[in-house]
Amino acid sequence: MAEVWAAKPEGTGISRAVALKLVRPEFAVEAEYARMFIDEAVIASTIRHPNICETYELGRDENLLFMVMEWVAGDTLSGLMRGSALSPLPVEVAVRICAEACAGLHAAHEAKDSDGNSLGVVHRDISPPNILVSVNGHVKVSDFGIAKAANQLHARTRTGEIKGKLAYIPPEQVLGQGIDRRVDIYAMGCVLYVTTLGKRPFGSGGEALGKIVRGSYRKPRELDPEYSEELERIVMRALASDREQRYQTAEEMRFELEQWLLTRPHLTQHADVARLVRERISDERKKMIDALMNVSRAIPEALTNRFISPADKTATPTATSGIVIQPAALARLQSQAAAPTLTPPKRPAEDDATLLSDATRAAMASPTVVEAPVPSTQAWRSKLPWLIMLGVVIVALLALFLLNRH
Questions:
Q1: 322 vs 93 pLDDT, higher one
Q2: Domain count for the chain
Q3: Which helix (H) or strand (E) holds 6?
Q4: Average pLDDT for 130-146
Q5: Any idea what DSSP says for residue 168?
Q6: Which residues are registered as beta bridge partners of 52?
Q7: 134 by DSSP, 3-state: which?
């Protein structure tokens, strides 16, 4: 029902690429789709988590509804598996991605309103196209377009209507038995299955519905005898037809995935995921990412000249370099103390006022006459030894002169 564009603000200044989501023109006139779009923005904006794609703004331009979201420099999980057939990911990398997605899902499920009440968020569309993976190896859950939550604007799902991708929905949703957060956990089991094996557990389309209801799918080790037994157990628990037998929270599933990763010879981290993304991302998408990332890579010279005055363009001070530019007000105070004058001191400029103390500004508010100091007796006493020595030298020179004449 929407299009997503990469965009950037126009004009000079520091800008960053964002994702701009627009309701498609054919749906923009339908009030129900507009309400769904607003619900998506409201739900997503209440969730703050590193593994959730952030929503910045919801707005309208004439009849066009738009949403400004975080732009993720990378690809969807489905994009990384794209090919003539679904291409599975290295098992450890797939598990790492699913564990991160579970962390984001748990944050969504636990979201609360301003009064601390649970929003009861259920994504309902967890699938590889809605899991984004960045070139830095970070995972983001996106697209809450058909999410269920409290206080929604759009109408509740009608009897016989199924929202979500048919290959990733649980039996209770097919049978109309009500949904809760465990439908997302079931979907994550499907995602884990397809990313590690390259096959959907129940196929796709309408033919998948009967298999889902019967719980009929091939176990991972039937497809790959070398598949980890412990990982197979995690997949099968997430795909349990009885939701009481599944993981009850996404955090519980994430914990077991993390525990499995700790048993591997090499601990898979973001760098390993990033390496896979760079290897699998298409050339066309890579060029687009490079172009958009160059937008905000450095501050333009024009912007530098606009905000930094010539007087400030000096070498950066270091720990041993001392003061590079002495404040003008401080310099004037020092010069007045070193060279007394009978004329009134110069009034400070407006921009120097913050550098002077209140007492200094009061003293400089009206003309004053500063008398030159008179040398004291103590000052002469301090110079007496030098004068005596000078006299002795003069007397000695005169004596030598007289002796030479005789």
A1: 93
A2: 1
A3: strand 2-7
A4: 91
A5: G
A6: 141
A7: strand
How many C-beta atoms surround the C-beta of residue 12 within 10 A?
10
Active-site residues, by number, are 125
Q: Token digits for 89? A: 């990911």
Phi, psi of 81 (to 5 degrees): -100, 5
More confident residue, 94 or 305: 94
Distance CA 12, CA 10 (A): 7
Give the domain CATH number at 236: 1.10.510.10
> What band does 356 get if pLDDT is binned at 50, 70 and 90?
very low
Q: Which range among 27-31, 229-233, 243-247, 260-264 shows the weakest confidence by mean pLDDT? A: 27-31
Give the domain extent around 134. 73-150+164-295
- Residue 81 gets the label, from left (phi > 0), alpha (psi -120 to 50) or beta, of alpha
Instruction: In whole angstroms, give the CA distance from residue 13 to residue 181.
Output: 43
AA identity, residue 314: T
Report the pLDDT value the prediction gives residue 353, as an integer from 0 to 100.
44
- What's the pTM? 0.71
Rounded-to-integer distance, Cα 246 and Cα 40, Å: 27
- Using a CB cutoff of 8 Å and minimum separation of 24, what contacts does 211-217 make? 212/169, 212/170, 212/171, 212/174, 213/171, 213/174, 213/175, 213/241, 215/171, 215/239, 215/240, 215/241, 217/193
